[in-house]
Amino acid sequence: ESLLTIIGKGKQGTKWFEKFLNGAKQDKMSFSDVFPILPIEERRTYERRAFVKPLRFYVTFLDAEGLEKVYYNSASIDISKEGLSIITDCILVKGDVVFFEPEIKVYEYEIVGKSAIVRWVKEIERNRYRIGLMFI
Fold first, then answer.
1. Global pTM?
2. How far apart are CA 76 and CA 25, in angstroms?
3. How far is the C-alpha of 111 from the C-alpha of 127, rounded, in Å?
4. By the 8 A CB rule, do 53 and 102 touch?
């Protein structure tokens, strides 16, 4: 309620807070029922499936001699029609584009992935990263 007041939406915050308290007294609704700005369910469009496999990818860099490909190894964790997550020792940042070699083919799920964009990066231990990729 206080945060909404700061940004000029105090009346809306008060309304949501009162609605939540009234509903909580009657045990008819949860916090997420009242606050539609919070995710109620899984935000992914496609179901993720376990997909543990070694992968090889490259990232391109522009240097004085032109475009250079730098190759890295990784292991995939899960996959969907939209993308996959991997574990690697290569630090990438959100927005980087990776190219798979060979391309990823999972015919049973109708997935073919040639390239992907980094959506998120999480360091899981020193110099090891879990990276979320979206196929492009």
1. 0.65
2. 46
3. 29
4. no
Q: DSSP secondary-structure letter at 23?
A: H
Cβ atoms of 54 and 74 closer than 8 Å: yes
Tell me the HSE value of 109 on the side-chain side, using a 13 A CA sphere. 19
Residue 63: pLDDT band by 50, 70, 90 thresholds? Answer: confident
Tell me the CA end-to-end span of the chain in Å, nearest whole number.
40
Which pair of tokens denotes residue 30? 């949860």
Residue tagged 């979206």 (tokens):
134
Please enumerate in sequence order all residues whose Cβ is within 8 A of that of 3, keeping only pairs 6 or more positions apart, or say none. Answer: 13
Element (H, E) at 1: none
